[in-house]
Design a protein that fits this description.
236 residues, Porin, eight-stranded antiparallel β-sheet, two-stranded antiparallel ribbon, 36% strand
């Protein structure tokens, strides 16, 4: 994955995105066809996984990392890291509005290939959260998002690696769970990184869901069908 083609380098260490770059990353790299990432949509949003991938490329890979998302990034916003060498880093704009906080600890590697491979493996998994992971969880818990206003917010993700000399990382899902509390819910996706047959790290992705209502298979099936048709049309 050549991450450089999915953002524009600005003055100093700042960076920004065009709608075309962010949308292409979502679809071509992450396999994510959320309408929020469509070039023509009114409420456009840069994928959180693109910010994550750029952070690894620019800051390196630490054994322990946590990424907490706090704001939606649109196109054309100039972003920068608050301090590249700190343990706690924020992704901010020119007005110091925060969009992402990064906490890291332990040994660090500046191996660009490792950063690229870890990012790509995670993004390939993360981008397929809907419908592959969320729909079965919603059915199990008899709860679903509002199809007219599907509010699923990427809260945070964390990675804890045992070592950094990983040759060919792969990702394997170990547990998925949806906790429902009235109209709100939290999806917990846990996974491990492997190098060959050896587990070399663990991770977790958390998402907040709101506007939940009773599960309706016919309605969700229609949403999934529309999603798949959009994906099919894109690659046609």
């Amino acid at each position: 994955m050549n991450i450089n083609q999915y953002f524009n380098q600005g003055a100093g260490a700042s960076f920004s995105f065009t709608r075309e770059q962010a949308s292409s990353f979502a679809k071509d790299i992450a396999g994510d066809f959320n309408p929020l990432h469509d070039v023509e949509t009114k409420k456009f949003c840069v994928p959180g996984d693109l910010l994550f991938s750029i952070a690894l490329a620019k800051l390196g890979v630490s054994k322990k990392m946590q990424f907490t998302f706090s704001g939606m990034v649109s196109d054309g916003i100039e972003l920068d890291f608050s301090c590249n060498e700190a343990a706690n880093i924020k992704v901010i704009d020119g007005s110091e509005k925060e969009y992402l906080s990064i906490n890291r600890d332990g040994e660090k590697s500046d191996n660009a290939e490792l950063a690229s491979l870890l990012a790509q493996r995670y993004v390939e998994f993360s981008g397929h959260t809907f419908p592959h992971v969320l729909v079965p969880l919603m059915e199990k818990e008899n709860a679903m998002i509002n199809p007219a206003r599907p509010l699923v917010i990427y809260e945070n993700m964390s990675i804890d690696l045992d070592r950094l000399d990983i040759a060919n990382p792969t990702l394997e899902v170990t547990n998925t769970e949806l906790q429902v509390n009235g109209k709100r819910g939290r999806a917990i996706l846990q996974f491990v990184f492997k190098d060959g047959d050896e587990v070399v790290g663990r991770g977790e992705k958390l998402m907040a869901l709101s506007g939940l209502r009773e599960f309706d298979a016919a309605v969700i099936n229609a949403v999934v069908e529309d999603y798949n048709e959009r994906k099919k049309a894109y690659f046609a």
